[in-house]
Amino acid sequence: MSEMVKTQVYVGVAVVLAALAVFWKSGYVEMQLDDMVGKDLFAKFTSADAATDLTITNYDTNFDKPVNFQVSRDKKTDQWVIPSEDGYPADAEEQMQKAVTALIDLEVVDIASEVAKDHELYGVLEPTNDVAAGSKGIGMLVEVADARKNKLAHLIIGKQDANNNELRFVRVRDEDVTYVVKLDLTNFTTEFNEWIEEDLLSLNPLDIRTVALKDYAILEVVDPRTGGPIKQLIQRSDTALTWNQEESKWKIGHMHEFKAPDQPTPTELSENEELNSERLNELKNALDDLKIVGVKQKPADTDQVKLQEYGFYPFPTTDENNKKIDDVRSANGEVHVSLQDGIQYVLRFGDIVPLDAVKATSEDSADNIYRYLVVAARLDKSQIPPPTLEPEPELPTAPEKKPDGAAPEKKPDGAAPEKKPDGATPEKKPDGAAPAKEDPKKPADPASAKKTPQDPEKKPAAEKKPANPGACGDDEKQAADDKKPADDKKPADDKKPADDKKPADDKKPADDKKPADDKAQPPADAQPPTEKPAEPPVTLSKEQIQKIIDGIRKENERKLNEYQEKLAASEKRVQELNARFANWCFIIDEKVYNQIHLSQTDVIKEKEESDLGNFRDLDPLNPNLPGTPPPGGNPLLPNLPPQP
Fold it and tell me: Are residues 233 and 372 in the same domain?
């Protein structure tokens, strides 16, 4: 066999073997693809806890570039953050579980294509910078990695199946095969607010107590000295409003206007003006609904150029203790909101955000305008008033010390005065002396006279009373006094029948006494109420008073502890909020800004005229109404005679 023949044989065998290999391989691949139907696309990805990084890449056709949205677990803090949003903290635990679980359980329904040329048809082109401008069929890339950056899943999601909206075309990155799977894209949202704590302030509008509207602006003006541009603070108004919880209405704390820098002028509502409650209630709801559509890491205070790009300017000032502090002023004023627990939010509004700087926009945005916002928290102690403490009674320590020195106490009192109160007779003398002093005072005599008839045993005392005025040498007074005790004796002996002479003529004086008693009972009944307050006060022992003091101290201590606990809780909350707010410039919708940033004219409106006033003008009985008939007749019923 010649060499040529051998060569031809070898070539033929090689061709046959190659054909067999191709046939076998294609059949094997086809058999492998058929085996994938009904199985998980990422069979090795079985635990959601292994996922520490999720990246979703979309292609922005407006700017012809891919846009990444990334959520990962920070190694230092073990918290979820959003690296694509400058590392802003993410509330991603639940959303991350949804996204990762959707890939773990992703089952192949069918094989759509095995060739790369169909990628554009099914919309599974990879979103990269290499994609030609205006290209169609670009999909969304979803990648999941573990802590060592190993790829657990990397899937390009394409178009929906025209015959079934629940099915989508997908392919594994770096592979040509296009699969059909059942997948819900809502699990892979790139909406910023879906991955964060959406409620920025976390406040209840019912807890709002005061709102301060500081309306000012920092504008660029021409420096008259140099002719160059400079920034100038333009103050407009300062309005403080208070929510009255009991009356459920807004009230004015103060209203100031600035006719010159740093010179507030107090103003008041005119007679035909009132607060615009509708706008103020809208402000409360906007604070409760305040949502952010993006964030930027706040530049350091030393980076004044970057701060001014966002609309914030360093403003050194002093605090309440006259201590220098570094404060900030914003380009478009600020709003202070205090809650009943003492938490005060300070919202400062910066400049408008360039549209290309907003990566995640809100669907209900107002004409695509956004604004920078800086938030701070501080403690407003005026909302947590200190408790009113109950005063403690004093212990009777002074009276107890005097008996210890008995001799010194007797010396200043004198021997004669001390003996008089010791005897029984001196005690009667003051009883008789008191009426003697009260005789010149006429109203005192009837009082003593009323008391004597009640006690028949005090008749001798009543007899002594006229003797004392007799000593004055006034005969007429003695005669009058003699008659008075005589009258007093009669009711004492007869039990009040002698006041009325008419019943004395009757044969039955006992029957007459009853009506006399009935008539005399009202003054007798009126006396006991006057005597009850005159009861001697209850004296407490030192031990009883000490017990009361201990109870008061315990209650006061409880009040103080409760007050300190409230302050501590509010201070802790302020620290937590500032840890969340301090490093960020938030991006909010312009519509929300217009609801919160109110000027003084926004919160004032003209009073609405009462409908009752209009009806009053139409009252036919109104004498000021033109055409009103003269008084004296009834204009509605003219046939009636005139009224007198």
Answer: yes
pTM value?
0.65
Tokens for 132, please give them: 């030609």
What is the extent of the structural domain holding 408?
A: 398-506
- Which is it for the CA torsion 91, 93, 94, 99, positive or negative? positive
Domain contains 624: no
In order, the DSSP letters of 14-27 are HHHHHHHHHHHHHH
Q: Are residues 223 and 185 in the same domain?
A: no
Tokens of 213: 């509207």
- Amino acid letter for position 127: P
Q: Distances in Å between the alpha carbon of 410 and those of 397, 404, 407, 413, 414?
A: 20, 12, 5, 5, 6
Query: Tens digit of pLDDT for each residue in 285-309?
Result: 999 989 998 899 988 766 788 889 9
How far is residue 527's CA from residue 200's CA, in Å, rounded to a whole number? 71
Residues 402, 404, 405: CA angle, nearest 5 degrees: 75
Q: Which residue bears the tokens 């006033």?
A: 613
Tokens 């990269």, located at residue: 128
Coil, strand, or helix at residue 606? strand
Last residue of a domain, one of 194, 223, 244: 194
Q: What is the 3-state secondary structure (H, E, C) of 87-141?
A: CEECCCHHHHHHHHHHHHCCEEEEEEECCHHHHHHHCCECCCCCCCCCCCCECEE
Q: In this predicted model, what pLDDT tens digit does every residue of 321-373 receive, in sequence order?
A: 777 777 889 999 999 999 999 999 999 999 999 877 775 444 544 468 999 99
In a domain, 495, yes or no: yes
**How many CB atoms sit inside 10 A of residue 419's CB?**
10
CA 176 vs. chain centroid, Å, equals 58
Place of tokens 């309306």: 215
Do 299 and 150 lie in a common domain? Answer: no
Query: Which of 133, 163, 194 is the last residue in one of the domains?
Result: 194
> 366 and 341, same structural domain?
yes
Element (H, E) at 82: strand 80-82
Number of domains observed in the structure of the chain: 3
CA distances to 119, 155, 168, 475, 639 from 112, rounded to whole Å, are 10, 15, 10, 139, 100
